[in-house]
Each structure stands twice: as structure tokens, then as C-alpha cells.
Write a structure and sequence with these properties.
Order of helices and strands: EHEEHEEHEEEHEEHEEEHEHHEEEEEE
Largest sheet: 6 strands, mixed
Shape: globular
Number of strands: 20
Strand order of the largest sheet: 11-12-13-10-4-14
Length: 375
């Protein structure tokens, strides 16, 4: 990433350290969050999606941002600027959380990793400059050292039922003792790296972070070790359909500055019983007043695919909007997420979609849409 900042075609998009490999594999490269990234490979999004659900796939997610926090007040600062409770993190644990504005709207969702002497935060690539500015704007004058290390690391996600079998062939890390949302440091493909049992697919999976100089070596080692498991490269298109089947929120679609974490179903990461934090008063007020809308999951009853922005109707009247929608390769039907009034949010409720004038019925269903068999 740091060695190859620009694009040969004259645009300003960066390349990850694995760009040449993606191109050689026939990846369809598109500008995404300031990077040139593979949206899919020749077999297509549906095949890639099913590969992850059946055996194992590998994603290059090196475009994600990494922020490092050190100093005696780092934990207190992170506890104030995020909505989850950083004080509950033990060394070697990861935590899903978010930044919120003072009005309770969401700046971004993120991960916090705790190491023995510092914290590492992983943020969405599309929000990296905004998140960096947000952190820098609120840093105390002393006690916290903040470093944006995003251009130093490559990040690979190894996801699927065979992810553990594959990675165990390459690392000194004892994967049997690495619990969900935990991390450790160790050798991976003969080089130092960070291994976290996290992911964005719902499957058993690991995210491996190494210095950019080791990225190609790691990729090659993964694909050599993964041959018995039919490992394949997976693009950002399948990453999106995989996360949708799990009802994992996507910033800019399902959550943004106009949504609060409670209506987005993220009350479980919003720790109102901890000390003060950015946005707490506004979120408490929302809770006290009662939610007026909720993020729900629905399946389409008929042939048609919902997309971001597709209107949701009740007897022809607009009552909501689709935030994410697509074809589910595992369910073989259209599925989506959207905000609807609380009184219309019960599972089994039937509403309609307005697909450019063609009205299709939908039914609210229990989420996640698909239940992986995670070991």
C-alpha cells in the first residue's frame, strides 16, 4: 500500500500491495473508497459467495484504516469517543463499536483491538479521512498519542468453514485457543503478523494483518496451503452479499449520520451504563422517548431485487426505504434491510416494494437471513 500510492491511469486512487495479483487473476478492478479494488473475479459474485459459505475464500481488505492509540489516557479517551465500553477489554480482545455525533447520529462503526501497551482501531476505508479528523479534533492535549498507520499494513480476511484448517498450516498461533473476537501476535507464513478471529461474513474466519512488504508472500502461502480446500479469491461484491445475509450493517447504507445505534439494532454495543461518552445524552433521550422506526430484514415474495433507496409501501403509501438489498445466493431470493415505523416492524408483517412502478410484496423475517454453521 505505501509502496504504490497512485494509479498508472492518472487517477488519484491508491493500490494495495496485492493490486498486481488481483489484476493478473482477472479481477474486475473498480475505484472504491480511494483504492483500486477487485469487485469480483471471473467466476462471479454468486460463485464467490458460495465458496465462502462452503469451504474458504480470501479477501484483500487492505483498504481499511488502522489507527493506533498509546499513552496513559488512551483507554479513557477511547471510552469517551466510542459507544461501547473499552474498559471491559482484556489484552487480546477485540470489540465492535462506533463513533457517534453529539446528536446521536453515527460517524462510523469500527473495531477496537487491545494490545499489552496500546490499542489499535480498524475503521471503514470510505470514512478514513473523516474518522481521522474526528479523532484529531477531540484528542486531549496530553496523555494520548495517536498515529494513523493505515498505509503501513495489509489486511487479509480468510473466511469460511475451512478457514481454521487452512490458516493452521501457516501460523504458529494456536487457533484452538483463539476465541471469537480475540486476537494475538505470531508468525504467519514465516513473518510476524496479527491474527484476529473476526470477519464480516458470519462464517468461521480470521483477519491477518502484516506489513505491506510481506503481503504478496502471505497471499501466495495462503493459496498454496488452501489448494485442498479449493480456496478462491473473493471480491468486494461477494463481501457485500455475505454481510447482507447476516444483517451486518454497512455504513452509508444502513447506518449514517441520520441514524442512531438503537434504531439500527446496535443497542447491544451502546453501553449507556458506563461513564459519559460522545452522544450519550442524545441516545438516552431517544431511548426514553421510544423508538419511532427500526431497521428490519425482509424477503421479497416474487421475482425482483431491492436496492438501496427502493421505497417500502403499506397499501400503496410510503412507509420506509430500503437501505441494503440484493440477491441471496444461499436463499435464492431477493432480501433487504430497511427502516420502517415501529408499529410495522413485527416479524411476519407484509408490506410492498415499489420497483420503479412495479409493486412486489415483501415479508419481514427473522435475521440473520442465513445461519452459518460456525465451529
Amino acid at each position: 500500500m505505501s509502496a504504490d500510492k497512485g494509479c498508472c491511469c492518472g487517477c488519484d486512487d491508491k493500490k494495495t500491495a496485492l493490486y498486481d495479483i488481483h489484476a493478473a487473476l482477472g479481477g474486475k478492478i473498480v475505484p472504491f473508497a480511494g483504492y483500486l479494488m477487485p469487485i469480483q473475479y471471473p467466476k462471479g459474485i454468486v460463485a464467490e459467495h458460495r465458496r465462502v459459505r462452503s469451504t474458504v475464500g480470501v479477501f484483500d481488505v487492505s483498504h481499511m484504516g488502522e489507527f493506533e492509540f498509546r499513552g496513559p489516557d488512551a483507554a479513557a479517551f477511547l471510552n469517551w469517543i466510542t459507544i461501547n465500553d473499552v474498559s471491559k477489554l482484556a489484552v487480546g480482545q477485540a470489540q465492535y463499536s462506533a463513533f457517534c455525533y453529539p446528536d446521536g447520529g453515527m460517524v462510523d462503526d469500527l473495531l477496537v483491538y487491545r494490545f499489552p501497551d496500546h490499542y489499535l482501531m480498524v475503521v471503514n476505508a470510505a470514512n478514513l479521512p473523516k474518522d481521522r479528523d474526528w479523532v484529531e479534533k477531540h484528542l486531549p492535549t496530553s496523555g494520548v498519542q495517536f498515529t494513523d498507520r493505515s498505509d503501513e499494513f495489509s489486511l487479509l480476511a480468510i473466511q469460511g468453514p475451512k478457514a481454521k484448517d487452512l490458516l493452521s498450516k501457516l501460523t504458529t498461533v494456536n487457533l484452538d485457543s483463539l476465541d471469537y473476537y480475540h486476537l494475538t501476535e505470531g508468525q504467519v507464513a514465516g513473518r510476524p503478523g496479527i491474527v484476529a478471529r473476526t470477519g464480516y461474513t458470519g462464517e468461521l474466519g480470521y483477519e491477518v494483518m502484516v506489513k505491506n512488504a510481506f503481503a504478496v508472500q502471505l497471499w501466495q502461502a495462503i493459496f498454496e496451503a488452501g489448494k485442498p480446500f479449493e480456496v478462491e479469491p473473493i471480491g468486494l461484491g461477494a463481501r457485500d452479499t455475505l454481510r447482507l445475509e447476516m444483517k451486518y450493517c454497512l455504513y452509508g447504507n444502513d447506518i449514517d449520520a441520520t441514524t442512531n445505534p438503537l434504531e439500527a439494532g446496535l443497542g447491544w454495543i451502546t453501553k449507556l451504563d458506563k461513564g459519559d461518552f460522545m452522544g450519550k445524552a442524545a441516545i438516552q433521550a431517544v431511548k426514553a422517548a421510544g423508538l419511532t422506526r427500526k431497521l428490519v430484514g425482509f424477503e421479497v415474495l416474487g421475482k425482483g431485487l431491492p436496492r438501496h433507496g427502493t421505497p417500502i409501501l403499506k397499501e400503496g403509501k410510503l412507509v420506509g426505504v430500503t437501505t441494503s438489498g440484493n440477491y441471496s445466493p444461499m436463499l435464492d431470493r431477493g432480501i433487504g434491510l430497511g427502516y420502517v415505523p415501529v408499529e410495522l416492524s413485527s416479524i411476519g408483517t407484509e408490506l410492498e416494494l415499489d420497483l420503479r412502478g412495479r409493486v412486489l410484496p415483501l415479508r419481514l423475517v427473522k435475521t440473520p437471513f442465513y445461519q452459518p454453521h460456525v465451529a
